[in-house]
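Practice problem 4.
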């Protein structure tokens, strides 16, 4: 079993910064893509940023230039540095990881989600 544990959410004023962390644990062989998704009240979950195992990144247009995703492969951890926060960034932020596991002797990739961490930006 794999667990993703997020931390770092909170309440911040517009223009402020937050840093989210997500640590994966379990019988992990390796982790492919990791990413962050957000879900605002009444809306669907949407991509914020992703990062591959070799560091290639992808961002939603709305966060380019303000957010930075990074990861520490040795710690199975992904980070999201959020600067110049806006009220429209408010939502629950979920960590996602595509994990390589061995099950019944076979390697396979499995998709996992964290429990979510609340980010609230006041105007």
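Answer key:
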């Amino acid at each position: 079993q794999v667990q993703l544990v997020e931390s770092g959410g909170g309440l911040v004023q517009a223009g402020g910064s937050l840093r989210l962390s997500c640590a994966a644990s379990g019988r992990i062989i390796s982790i492919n893509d990791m990413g962050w998704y957000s879900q605002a009240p009444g809306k669907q979950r949407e991509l914020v940023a992703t990062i591959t195992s070799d560091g290639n990144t992808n961002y939603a247009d709305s966060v380019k230039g303000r957010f930075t995703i990074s990861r520490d492969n040795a710690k199975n951890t992904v980070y999201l540095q959020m600067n110049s926060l806006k009220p429209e960034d408010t939502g629950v932020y979920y960590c996602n990881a595509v994990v390589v596991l061995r099950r019944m002797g076979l390697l396979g990739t499995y998709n996992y989600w964290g429990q979510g961490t609340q980010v609230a930006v006041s105007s």
